[in-house]
TrEMBL record:
Chain ranges of the Rhodanese domain: 71-158
Protein name: Rhodanese-like domain-containing protein
Record Gene3D superfamilies: Rhodanese-like domain
InterPro entries found in the cross-reference section: GlpE_sulfurtransferase, Rhodanese-like_dom, Rhodanese-like_dom_sf
Alphabetical list of PROSITE patterns matching this protein: RHODANESE_3 (PS50206)
Lineage, uppermost ranks: Bacteria, Bacillati, Actinomycetota, Actinomycetes, Micrococcales
Gene source species: Agromyces fucosus
Listed SUPFAM superfamilies: Rhodanese/Cell cycle control phosphatase
């Protein structure tokens, strides 16, 4: 993915803030661009991952070369019990504590990796991303983890088979916001 940001006229001076303490320390334009561009190099949201996986073979996760067709490998870094409870279809299961010892035999050298753990309250994916980076893999963390995968209404695999819950109304478009139109039946993108 190539990202282009075009510089145009300098932004007009902002209107006086009603919350000056909020913006007492704010980055200038160049620092803000560098920061947010940098974050995009480290993070992907669940909708972006779902879009990248669309059309992929859901059983490919057990194949050591799983990412060759996609250009990346999705890695679930949670425990065995968590994996059995539910995981993203096509993900490779490699708990964070085993990455250093097992990644080289499970994931091709240099293959880009996207990691996830439980959710935004867990830093297991961050620790896993660090391990993969130290092994030389380009790596991104899936923001929201498995929790937001499920909350956004995407299908997931369990020890008992495929499951899918209705999208959480806090992550899906509410009927009132659509002006009385249809509510999305399944998972949707936030379209941001």
């Amino acid at each position: 993915m190539t990202e282009t940001i075009t510089a145009t006229q300098p932004a007009a001076a902002p209107a006086p803030s009603r919350a000056p303490e909020l913006f007492a320390h704010v980055a200038d334009r160049d620092a803000a661009i560098a920061h947010f561009r940098g974050r995009l190099g480290f993070e992907a949201d669940v909708s972006d991952v779902a879009a990248a996986l669309a059309g992929a073979d859901p059983g490919a996760g057990s194949d050591p070369d799983a990412g060759s067709a996609l250009g990346f490998v999705l890695v679930d870094t949670r425990s065995e019990a968590s994996w059995a409870q539910g995981h993203v279809p096509g993900a490779v299961h490699l708990p964070g504590r085993r990455i250093a010892a097992e990644a080289s035999s499970r994931i091709p050298a240099g293959m880009p990796v996207v990691v996830y753990c439980w959710g935004p309250g867990c830093n297991g994916a961050t620790r896993a991303a660090l391990e993969f980076a130290m092994l030389g893999h380009p790596v991104k963390e899936m923001l929201g983890g498995f929790e937001y995968w499920v909350r956004e209404g995407f299908a997931y695999d369990t020890a008992d088979g495929r499951a899918q819950l209705a999208a959480d109304p806090l992550t899906n478009v509410a009927e009132a916001e659509l002006g009385g139109g249809a509510v999305a039946d399944g998972a949707i993108s936030c379209a941001c």
